[in-house]
Amino acid sequence: MPQVLSDLQAGVLKLTLNRPERANAFSLEMIAELQTAFKQAARAAGVRVVVLTGSGQAFGAGQDIDEIRAAGFDTSVSFREHLLQTYNPLVLQIRQIEKPVIAAINGPCAGASLGVALACDIRLASEAANFVVGFLGIGLVPDSAVSLLLPKLVGLGRASLATFSNAPISAAQALEWGLVNQVIPAAELMAVTGELAAQLAAGPVGAYGLTKRAFNRAVLPNLEDVLDYEAHLQDIAARGNEHLEGVAAFLEKRQPKFN
Q1: What architecture is the 4-187 domain classified under in CATH?
Q2: Would you list the domain boundaries of the chain?
Q3: pTM here?
Q4: Rounded alpha-carbon distances, angstroms, from residue 236 to 77, 112, 229
Q5: If residue 188 lies in a helix (H) or strand (E), which one and from where to where?
Q6: Residue 77: pLDDT band by 50, 70, 90 thresholds?
């Protein structure tokens, strides 16, 4: 079963993260499939708009911790190398594809999934959605461009509080802060998203692409540098005692004791 479902209709490519039993947490396979999908979409003249959403009740729970541990990333493999192969290129693909990318956020969105959603051009959220930065809960630092995109969208103070407290941001709060463009009843999310996607697909896609270039240069000129620095900091954090305690607490379903 593919971990990313793909459906192209009338110029709109819908990509659905498809691990509902894991709240659509990212596996290495899912990331690779998503990278391939964006690579193909960038080249395909028939794709004019991309919609990214999740199956089941969640948009995405971030990185699958169990898979990371099984792969040895917490002991022997560099988190930096992991990011350089996975989320860093994926975020750049979303920002650099010269077609609109809409995130239809159907439920909880946390960690690296938050970074992926923030990289999209437009975010439509279900009333059932909420947002958790997540990284500090397991003794890590924000990656997947969250350290850049979250403060850009909501301001440094709000981003700092949300990151340090790890408190969920409701859909209504996300709208007030400018984290999402619109909040929609859950049953209507995909219909409203489809209407917007169809409207954009009928528009000047070439000009959209040039506009994304302009926005990237004006607002995110240091994106690649930030992604690289996040990867460096994550390598440091991943080898610290706080991360070990954070992961142990997560697996044992208890509050971490950071000393």
Answers
A1: Alpha-Beta Complex (3.90)
A2: 4-187
A3: 0.95
A4: 12, 18, 11
A5: none
A6: low
